[in-house]
Amino acid sequence: MNDLFNINRFTALVKQQVVFSKMTYLYMLAAVAGGVIVSAFMYSYIGISLANVILAAITLTILFGPVFFEKGITQYNGVFDFMCPVSTLEKLLGFFVKYMILFPVLLMGSLFVLVSLLKVVPVEEIRKFAYSFSFQVWSYKGIYGILTMQAIFLVGYLSFKKHAFIKTWLSLMLLIFLGSTLTTFCLYMLIGQTSFSSSMDLSMAGNFPNVGEDSIWFRLLDYTAIVVIPVGLWVVSYFKLREKEI
Question: Residue 110 carries which DSSP code?
Answer without folding.
Answer: H
